[in-house]
Design goal:
single chain, alpha+beta, Butyryl-Coa Dehydrogenase, subunit A, domain 1, Butyryl-CoA Dehydrogenase, subunit A, domain 2, Butyryl-CoA Dehydrogenase, subunit A, domain 3, 3 domains, three-stranded mixed β-sheet, 10 helices, 9 strands, about 50% helix, binds 3-thiaglutaryl-CoA, binds flavin-adenine dinucleotide
Length: about 400
């Protein structure tokens, strides 16, 4: 029987998925893992306890290549494949979901639409600065009265001849209080959805911060308010209009979340496994009790299943064959798996599990946002229901 090649303690890889990765994939994963250990893990608890967004992380993410991994190198991106992108999200979220949010919004929701639907001038002007972390971006789709139903949005723009006039408001926008630019989805006078690049400093554009979150406390969240903002015509994304344009970007971001959430699950599993071996009760390590072993065995099983889904989906993303429903299944499964594992791991730590000495409560609270944004758990279920039955159950 073959010996397990990988160290289960630090990186559960029970079905030897590493055998399916290239040397480049492994190198990328270990460089991001080292980065997270050095730049995020030592401070993340303080940042979260103090609801502090470490703005300096933006430049550091740029330097390590966390922004826009799949964007071609000519625009400053990494020119990497979708498995690399998934591994990067997994390792960042192993550190913290809020940090992964910063990176995935920048890459999948700001750089991706500019790359996919932007003009050559827009790509040259914005992508290299976003890739390097000189600029931070955000993505405005959700509105106060339109979350799961973005097609009902009321944010709108009028053609004024030499510019567009933008009015409305977006809510729950990751990165907004510190963003240099926002990719904003708004309706024209004909009611058609378009993407516009709104730049900080444009008159009438403000980004109030949302305070009092119990989740993603190291990520900054806010509103986008547009009060007669004059947007130059060259800032309209010319390549695609309609709801399909922002939804395309969400397909890419949701894929990253499927991997990221399993990173958080791995961190909880690693901590629970260590604690079970060290904590003595009734004169024995608690890991010797059957109920603790059951929890650990189930965690490992669920992580392994999710890893297999993510790996397979990554290959379909790379081939361009992955469907929205396949992505929904992976996002939904990944986040549910991670949430359940965070709760079980917390229980294994007993009372110690509620403190900031261990990561489970932070991951658990973060994952309550992850299970809600980029389509709620139930919306993804309905996307799958529609795929199975052919019947739309949203309305
Ligand atoms: P429906 O009738 O199903 O579709 C309307 C049009 O959109 C097209 N479409 C897609 N196109 C490409 N990719 C997708 N994934 C698409 N999903 C839908 C569809 O083909 C159709 O096109 P057309 O040309 O025929 O008009 O739409 P509906 O109005 O019934 O709504 C359903 C839908 C899809 C919007 C809903 O299921 C949904 O997904 N709601 C969730 C909204 C959401 O995910 N918001 C995310 C906001 S961004 C965010 O949360 C970032 S957090 C980031 C972080 O911090 O990490
Ligand atoms: P609602 O749509 O009001 O849903 C409330 C409940 O009703 C949910 O349980 C939902 O599943 C259920 N529901 C709704 N419709 C149906 C239906 N048809 N059938 C059955 N159940 C239904 N948005 C952005 O655009 N950009 C961002 O960067 C961004 N970042 C975010 C960061 C954080 C921390 C959070 C919490 C959210 C962020 N969002 C962002 C918004 C996020 O995408 C929305 O919160 C999400 O899409 C849900 O919308 P909602 O909050 O309005 O909930």
């Amino acid at each position: 029987m073959k010996q397990m090649a990988t160290d289960l303690f630090e990186s559960p890889d029970f079905y030897c998925l590493d055998d399916l990765l290239t040397e480049e994939h492994k190198l990328i994963r270990s460089s991001i893992r080292d980065f997270v250990k050095k730049e995020i893990s030592p401070s993340i608890e303080d940042w979260c306890q103090n609801a502090h967004f470490p703005q300096e992380i933006v430049k550091k993410f740029g330097d390590v290549g966390a922004f826009g991994p799949t964007i071609p190198m000519e625009y400053g991106g990494g020119g990497l494949d979708y498995i690399s992108y998934g591994l990067i999200m997994q390792e960042i979220e192993r550190g913290d979901s809020g940090m992964r949010s910063t990176a995935s919004v920048q890459g999948s929701l700001v750089m991706y639409p500019i790359y996919k639907f932007g003009s050559e001038d827009q790509k040259k002007k914005f992508l290299p600065k976003l890739a390097s972390g000189e600029f931070l971006g955000c993505f405005g789709l959700t509105e106060p009265d339109h979350g799961s139903n973005p097609s009902g949005m009321v944010t709108n723009f009028k053609d004024m001849g030499d510019h567009y006039l933008l009015n409305g408001a977006k809510m729950w926008i990751s990165n907004s209080p510190h963003a240099d630019i926002a990719v904003v989805w708004a309706k024209n006078e004909a009611g058609r959805i378009h993407g516009l690049i709104v730049e900080r400093g444009m008159e009438g554009f403000t980004t109030p911060e949302t305070h009092g979150k119990w989740s993603l406390r190291a990520s900054c969240t806010g509103e986008l308010v547009f009060d007669n903002v004059k947007v130059p015509k060259e800032n309209l994304l010319p390549g695609k209009s309609g709801l399909g344009a922002p939804m395309n970007c969400l397909d890419s971001a949701r894929y990253g979340i499927a991997w990221g959430a399993i990173g958080a699950a791995m961190d909880c599993y690693d901590s629970a496994k260590r604690y079970a071996q060290e904590r003595i009760q009734f004169d024995k390590p608690i890991g010797s009790f059957q109920l603790i072993q059951k929890k650990l065995a189930e965690m490992l099983t669920e992580i392994t299943k999710a890893q297999l889904i993510n790996w397979r989906l990554g290959n379909m993303m790379q081939a361009g064959t992955a469907t929205t429903a396949q992505i929904s299944l992976a996002k939904r499964n990944g986040v549910e798996t991670a949430l359940n594992i965070a709760r079980e791991a917390r229980q294994i730590h007993g009372g110690m599990g509620i403190t900031g000495e261990y990561p489970m409560m932070r991951h658990m609270a973060n994952l309550e946002s992850v299970v809600t944004y980029e389509g709620t758990h139930d919306i993804h279920l309905l996307i799958l229901g529609k795929e199975i039955t052919g019947i739309q159950a949203f309305v």
